[in-house]
Amino acid sequence: MRLDKYLKVSRIIKRRTVAKEVADKGRIKLNGILAKSSSDVKYQDILTITFGNKILEVRVLDIKDSTKKEDADKMYEILSETRVNS
Question: Which residue intervals define the domain RNA-binding S4 in the entry (predicted)?
Answer without folding.
Answer: 1-64
